[in-house]
Design goal:
heterodimer, A: alpha/beta, Rossmann fold, 3 domains, 48% helix, B: alpha+beta, 5 strands, globular
């Protein structure tokens, strides 16, 4: 199995380089307005266009109605944690950001633009991000190292009047929550009672812990584990965490009510759910640890490309439901299920922000979308195209209820808007490539 | 219920653990505060010596249900050139993470003030790493102000 994977990986690698050489970039700007002759520019550009500028000058919110701001998202990165390859810098991050921009557009009809930033520290990042805000209706932070990503997200969410999202945190956390919601429905357990081990304390799992709390899970039943072991308030490095990663420090104080310490395997005993975003190596989670879990255990082994335990091994050890990050096993936990719909929704509502309440609604929307849930089908798949307008309408409506929306509509209205935008965008693809 | 009292011999191991936690915290602020290893015996000897020396030191612990959750170690200093003639200088000050934000630091400082006043000592000072913003805010809130700076250079 490993050999076959590595061959396939090799094939994908070669193909990606070949395509990048051929096309030299994956996205471009295209006109939205028909141009019949050069005379049209008296209206599209000077002198006529000054009248539009005057209108926006008089009422700044009109920028959402008279320009492309409403549908434009900046994909911001400093290139400090690009996919699995690490700190490769903003230039090397561009191919990834272009791919993300394409996904944004293809799945969500969003006009996403890669903005890799050449910045040395948090303050420079914040300054740059704030400075480029006029054209954008939302920001997506991407591939930024932890704990910097927590600081940047928190700071920008507090100070910007558009939604700021960090997909590696919030997108992943939302799809994990959706998968857990359906898993609990299948094994008939309550969110208030379940004991959850979060194995790995990077961007996704830290965000998941806060999101699960917002969704009504009892954080005192959580145990978080990082590379140094079980996180608890008397651990020797706890004060260093307080200074360097206050988000993880707060988790140390608020979770693990029973004060489980020592060997990682202690955390697994009696646990109902494992959410693992840890080392990409199939023996990271031992079969014995899964065996020590509660009945009907749920194992999310999300490391890519290799899960922390193979699904067969987890099931053999008693796991009822297993999810991974891979498309070649059932139950792929993939943040591409989340961000196109979430962004379509906040953009259509011209939202001033996004928060955990909106994310919880999105997760339930994604979970409810799967009508025929089973142990091998807890989340939608990439080909479920009508998932995105569905999530968009739920998100947009929740935005209205949270008093963040600049544009008010019903859920049905938002659904119509979103599916119209996404399907007319799909038609453009068909025309462009003569389908 | 957290109780503040003078340190006793039985507290030595807990106090040492918290002293080492404090020193590791300090090491986060500056390389010159890097904690040396293998010095437990010297710390114990030092603590044993100063516990009994109540003329020159006031050492307090915060105790919750037989568990030491905070420490304060201070020296009484004679000020040859200045008035007032005596000050009590806080050298070590630490509260366990779970007990922060519960006014235990304030209780330790207030207890120190009360004991010092009985000895007719009216001035309190405290030392900590320059970059420790949490300490700066804490002391400012307690009515302290910055007095002396210490500069360092390691050749």
């Amino acid at each position: 199995m490993i050999m076959k994977d590595s061959e396939r990986t090799e094939y994908f690698n070669e193909k990606a380089i070949e395509i990048s050489k051929k096309y030299k970039g994956k996205i471009r700007n295209l006109p939205k307005i028909p141009i019949h002759s050069i005379d049209d520019f008296s209206v599209l550009y000077t002198p006529g266009i000054a009248a539009v500028s005057k209108k926006i000058h008089a009422d700044k919110d009109l920028v959402f109605e008279l320009t492309g701001k409403w549908n434009s998202v900046a994909i911001l990165t400093d290139g400090t944690r690009v996919l699995g390859i690490g700190n490769v810098g903003p230039e090397a991050a561009i191919p990834v950001m272009e791919g993300k921009a394409l996904l944004f557009n293809y799945l969500g009809g969003v006009n996403a633009i890669p903005i890799p930033l050449n910045v040395k520290n948090n303050d420079e990042f914040i300054t740059a991000a704030k400075a480029i805000s006029p054209f954008f209706g939302g920001y997506n932070l991407e591939d930024i190292e932890s704990p910097r990503c927590f600081f940047l997200l928190e700071k920008l969410q507090k100070t910007m009047d558009i939604p700021v999202w960090h997909d590696d945190q919030l997108g992943t956390a939302s799809i994990i929550l959706a998968g857990v919601i359906n898993s609990l429905r299948l094994v008939n357990k309550k969110k208030e009672d379940v004991r959850i081990v979060f194995n790995g304390a990077g961007a996704a799992n830290i965000a998941a812990i806060y999101l699960f709390e917002a969704a009504g899970f009892n954080k005192k039943n959580f145990i978080a584990i990082d590379s140094k072991g079980i996180i608890e308030p008397e651990r020797k490095d706890i004060d260093a965490l307080m200074l360097n990663n206050p988000w993880k420090y707060k988790i140390a104080l608020d979770t693990n009510q029973e004060r489980v310490k020592g060997d990682v395997k202690n955390a697994f005993k009696g646990a109902d759910i494992i959410i693992s975003a840890s080392k990409s190596e199939p023996d990271t989670i031992k079969k014995d640890w899964v065996k020590s879990m509660n009945n009907d255990s749920i194992v999310f082994a999300l490391a890519n490309p290799l899960p922390e335990i193979w699904p067969d091994d987890a099931k053999e050890s008693g796991a009822k439901i297993v999810a991974t990050g891979r498309s070649d096993f059932p139950n792929q936990i993939n943040n591409s299920m989340v961000f196109p719909g979430v962004f379509r929704g906040v953009l259509d509502a011209r939202s001033r922000g996004v928060n955990f309440g909106i994310m919880v609604a999105a997760s339930y929307g994604i979970a409810d979308y799967v009508k025929d849930i089973s142990y091998d089908h807890i989340v939608p798949s990439m080909s479920d195209f009508d998932l995105f307008p569905e999530v968009a309408s739920i998100v947009a409506r929740k935005t209205v209820e949270s008093n963040l929306a600049r544009k008010i509509d019903t859920q049905a209205g938002f659904y119509r808007t979103a599916s119209e935008i996404i399907s007319s965008n799909r038609k453009i693809y068909n025309k462009l490539f003569d389908k | 219920m957290v109780n503040i009292r003078l340190m006793e011999k039985k507290d030595i191991n807990d106090v040492m653990d918290e002293l080492l936690r404090l020193k590791r915290l300090n090491s986060e602020f500056d390389f010159a505060l890097k904690v040396s290893s293998g010095n437990e015996n010297e710390i114990i000897n030092r603590l044993n010596k100063i516990i009994d020396d109540r003329e020159d030191h006031i050492i307090l612990v915060a105790e919750d249900d037989n568990k030491i959750v905070g420490i304060l170690i201070s020296d009484i200093l004679f000020r040859i050139y200045y008035d007032p003639k005596y000050e009590v200088r806080i050298r070590e000050f630490y509260v366990m993470p779970e007990y922060r934000g519960k006014d235990i630091g304030k209780m330790l400082i207030n207890k120190l003030r009360d004991i010092a006043q009985k000895k007719d000592i009216k001035m309190m000072t405290s030392e900590f790493p320059s970059l420790n913003l949490i300490a700066i805010n804490f002391y400012k809130n307690m009515g302290f102000k910055e007095l002396i700076k210490i500069y360092s250079k390691i050749e």
